Amino acid sequence: MTDATDRPTDVNGDEHVDETSETIVKTVEETRRDAHDIWVSGTEERYPFAGSTDEGAQEMLPEGDDPAASIQQGVSVDDDYTSEPRNDSEERQIINMGPQHPSTHGVLRLHLELEGETVRRVKPIIGYLHTGMEKTAETLTYAQGSTNVTRMDYLAPFHNELAFSLTVEQLLGLEVPDRASAIRVLMTELNRVSSHLLWAATQGMDIGALSMMIYGWREREVCLDFFEKTTGLRMNHNYIRPGGVAADLPDGWEDDVADLIVAVSGGLDEYEELLNENPIFLDRTMGVGVITPQECKQFGVTGPMARASGIPWDLRKSNPYCGIEQYEFDVPLGLHGDVHDRYTVRMAEMRESLKIVEQVTASMPRGDYRSEDRKVTPPPRKRIDESMEALIHHFKLFTEGIKVPEGTAYQSVEGPRGEVGCVIVSKGGAKPWRMHWRAPSFAAVQALPVMMTDSLVADVVASLASADPVLGDVDR
Amino acid sequence: MTEMTEPDGAAAHVEGVANVTDNELVASIVDGIEGASVTEHRYASSETIYHMVAVPVDSWVAAVSAAKERGFDSYVDLYAVDHFAQAPRFEVGINLISMEANQRVLLTTRVPYDAPSVPTLTDVFAGANFYEREAFDLFGIDFPGHPDLTRILLPDDWEGHPLRKDTSVGSIPVQFKAGSVDL
Asked: The domain that contains A280 carries what CATH number?
């Protein structure tokens, strides 16, 4: 073409004169002048909400007037953290990360105050998944209760069911048979493995090790297959119930568990080969998202996160439940409390859990898989045809429910994310008067600002993934 | 189901008889606190014991600080209970661990319906921040001194406090119109 102009042409090759270019420039200038205004396309009209967005109580206060921020950032805890503004606050901007951001593991929203790429303040905003499960628990009988709690931390359903069942059993003063306890240990330890595998997958994905995601889900599927075979469901099992477990282990479960152990430990070897000496992975995790033991204690951070900070505390050792003290296992500890230590601790924990699973398989006691107390567990189906008493027990149990004496009880188990605890206040009757859930993820989310303040935006993602929060557990 | 009465005509809540605990550590927490009572609880299928300590609301912060000084320095949990139809209607409990002594203690206090106010523990345990917000949100309990006492789980414009016993479980009326609607 001889006409060497860069004027745009339309589809027919005719010269296209842009008549609106002047107005566009004008609009851009105006937009720059007041970046917060949103204009209705093609008109002079503003959107009615533009510039007047009111976040209400969720708004971040000016830094000096925000005592909550200093608490959340751990300033009130004697710590290495110093909150010294390095630039004028005009340079700062507030960015919302979430609730739809893929790295927030659900519907967590982080209010980030950024200075360039550096995070100066963080405010976690939760409640997007709040469905009032604690209120729902008051309307469900004790027999129905485990269907409710299993949905809270949906990656550790067995731990939720176990904490709930143990609390009810504590109020009842009920002893469960040895086999039921052993099955509970088997299932919860396998659940710890499956939960940590999902954590490994998401942690890898969030910091760029995308193949890790595929591998983690792959091995987790092996665990879920076993859960499905045992309980009928991949998640939300309602398998561990007050009085024991819902059903005995399926035929051939020993072989399934043996295969599972081979598959998962083989997978763990592969992950460590993939990640342990990967320079990118090490750079992204070492020294990132540090939380000190003191802060862990102050903020109620428990489980692998606290152990990665060097706190030698595991409820399976300090307050054993379901006879877990019979099995030999170690509690892996970290030293620095950073993302990398959490990775090491969780990887080691999976191996320890598999060790427990192996021992449970070898020493599974014979006997009943649930209590024979007919006020708590229903009689076998066959007995109902033969015995009037069994029929009455069955009828009373399913119309009225388990009668639990008056009292308050707290019981906790070591979940994959820390202490899963349950407070039940009973006033007698078949439904809890109040059920409070001690959610480990709730405490972890509260401690996020401690880990994230003064780090880079990219590290926010790494820290968040290493805290492994489940938003169903946080919001309940 | 307990028949619900108005809080005014409520039966007075009788504090549990102050048990003499042989646990020196727990006894030292309530030492000097008038009206405190200690009860022992046993975990399910276990010989291990944990304690529940009820203290008056006036000595709430003092009792929790005393517990912290005596080694119960690991914050675990804070919860509220609505004992509807009992005289001090609301209960707030905090759950602490002493890792050194391997003991757990739950300190509780009761506040009446017309003054549901418990001094904040955020100065003692930074972790009480979100938990007190939750208790405020769902029970309407005030925590004077809390730095940011706003709703945490519910929207800011929510009316009422749903975990109170006088809030009913909501339901949405659904009309099944199939067959009666022209399609």
From this structure: 1.10.645.10
Burial of A213 (0-12, 13-18, 19+ CB in 10 A): middle
Task: Collect all residues of chain B within an 8 Å Cβ-Cβ radius of residue A320.
Answer: 46
Say which residues have a Cβ less than 8 Å from residue A395's Cβ, sequence separation at least 6. Answer: none
- Asked whether residue A16 is domain-assigned, the answer is no
Q: Count the Cβ atoms, other than its own, within 10 Å of residue A351.
A: 16
Burial tier of B26 (Cβ tally within 10 Å: 0-12, 13-18, 19+)? buried
Query: Is A13 part of any domain?
Result: no
Strand ranges, E, within A116-159: 118-125
pLDDT in tens, B117-166: 999 998 888 889 899 999 999 998 999 988 888 888 888 888 888 888 88
Q: Do B75 and A300 touch (CB under 8 A)?
A: yes
Instruction: Give the side-chain half-sphere CA count within 13 A for A110.
Output: 29
State which H helix or E strand residue B110 sits in.
strand B103-111
Distance CA A358, CA B68 (A): 40
Nearest to A321 among B46, B138, B154 (CB): B46
- As beta bridge partners, residue A244 has A241, A370
Give the number of domains in chain A: 1
Answer whether B43 sits within 8 Å of A411, measured CB to CB: yes
List CB contacts of A196: < 8 A, sequence separation 6 or more: A346, A347, A349, A350, A353, A416
Structure ipTM: 0.83
Q: Is there a contact between A141 and A437 (Cβ–Cβ < 8 Å)? A: no
Which of A108, A446, A476 to substitute to test the interface with B, most B CBs within 10 Å? A446
| B74: containing domain | 7-139
In a domain? residue A398: yes
What CATH number does residue B129 fall under? 3.30.460.80
Count of domains in chain B?
1
Picking from A267, A265, A447, the residue whose alpha carbon sits closest to that of residue A342 is: A447
Q: Which domain holds residue A434?
A: 133-446+460-475
Could you tell me if residue A46 is inside a domain? no
What pTM value is reported for the model? Answer: 0.83
Contacts of B143 (CB under 8 A, 6+ apart): B117, B118, B119, B120, B121, B122, B132, B135, B136, B149
